[in-house]
């Protein structure tokens, strides 16, 4: 259960937040939205793919942490097993919420029911004068920076779509024995389309700094086999 409320210096004057790497709250989320700044560091651990909102047509970049819905193989226990972590994992229990749907002004909110929030342990959010502590200022700055990065990522995804570089990919996995799994609804960069781009369009990708992102994404697809193996091991241990 969550209780997301706007952060207020009077109502939450004594609250503290404990930082930890217990990401088990994501255990039923197998696709984690990421920003382009995550591509290169995360590519060594997670397959990076794109999913399409069927209503808006907007593409979202995601890190695959499971091959089946509702099973994140990395977050089944409080112990995070990987060396790299998506930027968004550091938000909680704080978040940004728009005041209005068409308004850029945002509230900093907190999940007051989170186990990371208490009055006894952790980093204080407000000082004795009701002013934001340096900790809260830094956390707020991270939220704002990440919101900007998500907007930047959305723009890049739209650029890839406009260039027709995204293609629907179906993956067939062998989970041992006779069990097979087909992964559908995932988009990847079309390598043939990329290679066929005219020189001026390819150079445009290079000048925009997008080639390292594309190659990180393509390289990350080699992690799917390892992800499937992790799923098999998790199933065996249940």
UniProtKB/TrEMBL annotation:
- InterPro entries to which the protein is assigned, alphabetical: SapC
Database matches in Pfam families: SapC
Official protein name in the record: SapC family protein
Source superkingdom? Bacteria
């Amino acid at each position: 259960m969550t209780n997301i409320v706007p952060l207020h210096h009077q109502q939450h004057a004594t609250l503290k937040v404990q930082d930890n790497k217990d990401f088990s709250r994501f255990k039923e989320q197998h696709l984690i939205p990421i920003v382009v700044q995550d591509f290169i560091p995360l590519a060594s651990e997670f397959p990076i793919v794109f999913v399409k909102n069927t209503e808006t047509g907007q593409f979202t970049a995601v890190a695959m942490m499971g091959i089946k819905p509702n099973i994140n193989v990395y977050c089944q226990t409080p112990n995070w097993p990987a060396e790299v972590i998506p930027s968004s994992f550091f938000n909680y229990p704080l978040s940004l919420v728009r005041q209005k749907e068409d308004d850029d002004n945002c509230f900093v909110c907190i999940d007051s029911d989170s186990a990371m929030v208490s009055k006894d342990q952790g980093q204080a959010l407000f000082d004795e004068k009701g002013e934001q502590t340096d900790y809260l200022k830094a956390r707020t700055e991270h939220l704002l920076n990440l919101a900007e990065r998500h907007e930047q990522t959305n723009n890049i995804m739209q650029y890839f779509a406009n260039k027709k570089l995204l293609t629907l990919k179906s993956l067939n996995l062998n989970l041992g024995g006779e069990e097979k799994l087909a992964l559908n609804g995932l988009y990847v960069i079309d390598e043939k389309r990329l290679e066929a781009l005219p020189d001026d369009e390819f150079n445009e990708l290079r000048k925009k700094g997008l080639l390292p992102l594309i190659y990180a994404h393509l390289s990350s697809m080699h992690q799917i086999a390892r992800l499937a193996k992790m799923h098999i091991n998790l199933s065996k241990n249940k």
